[in-house]
Amino acid sequence: MRIHIIACRIFERELGYLAAKSENPVDFTWVGRGLHNEPDKLCARLCGAVDALYDQLASGELEYRPDYIALGYGLCSKAVVGIRCRDIPIVIPRTDDCIALFMGSEEKYLKEFAEVKGAYWLNSGWIEQSVRLFDGDDLKRRRWMEYAEKYGEDNADFLIETESSWEKNYSTLGFLHSEIYDSPEYLARAKEEAERKGWTLRELNEDLRLLRMLVNGTWNETEFLILKPGEAIEADYTGLKLRASGRGSEA
């Protein structure tokens, strides 16, 4: 079975390692994490990546047609909603986001979420692909000056406060240790951020179970959605996270 994975680059080390050990030939299209807060743009980028794969097959750039296209994403703020399957089946994990993939299951992710409310999670891959983890005071000050010049000082205060309001929902910074690549430098950076914000640092080990299943093609209907030709990804609110258009909530 040949699999072509379109994935966020934060998975590059883990998926690259697992693909090298898989019996399946696995090809990759990597997408930067810079659009993770802009789901509409990310969706367009992912749809474009699927289109580009077909263009490469048509031009002969890619000589082998994959049996499956797999997405290294979860629901990700609905960024995957609307991605449509042409004639190559598309596989995607039924998870909220990348952290659930790194934790090994949506069940473990939800359990951790219930036990530690207000946790913002990072790992080496996330930090490695990020110019900055959070907006520092200097950056906020520069943005405030830009807003003040355009909209006035009162509006600048409001805009900066609104942009930073999401942080009020968090009190813990989580760090996932990887058995593939675990950087002391990135852990130190996470500790510095936690101290700067007055948050508690929580450390857990990654579980590569779902990522291993993704490259090995050992998918089950409970944890993976497999699109058939003509179907598109829809959000599901029964607990499955994702469903195929036209197949109902049991898909």
Question: What do these coordinates show?
Answer:
By secondary structure, this protein is α/β, with parallel strands linked by helices. The protein folds into two domains: 3-99 and 208-244; 106-205, no CATH class. Helices cover 40% and strands 19% of the residues. The protein contains nine helices and ten strands. It has helices at 12-21, 39-59, 98-103, 106-115, 124-128, 137-151, 153-164, 184-197, 209-216, and strands spanning 3-8, 26-31, 68-72, 90-93, 119-123, 172-177, 200-205, 224-227, 233-235, 242-244. The strands form three sheets. It has a five-stranded mixed sheet, with helices on both faces. It has a three-stranded parallel sheet with strand order 5-6-7. The chain has a two-stranded antiparallel sheet with strand order 9-10. Helix 8 (184-197) links the parallel strand 6 (172-177) and strand 7. Helix 1 (12-21) packs across helix 9 (209-216) and helix 6 packs across helix 7. The longest helix is centred in the N-terminal third of the chain and has 21 residues, at 39-59. It starts with a strand and ends in a 7-residue tail after the last strand. The model has no long low-confidence stretch (mean pLDDT 88).
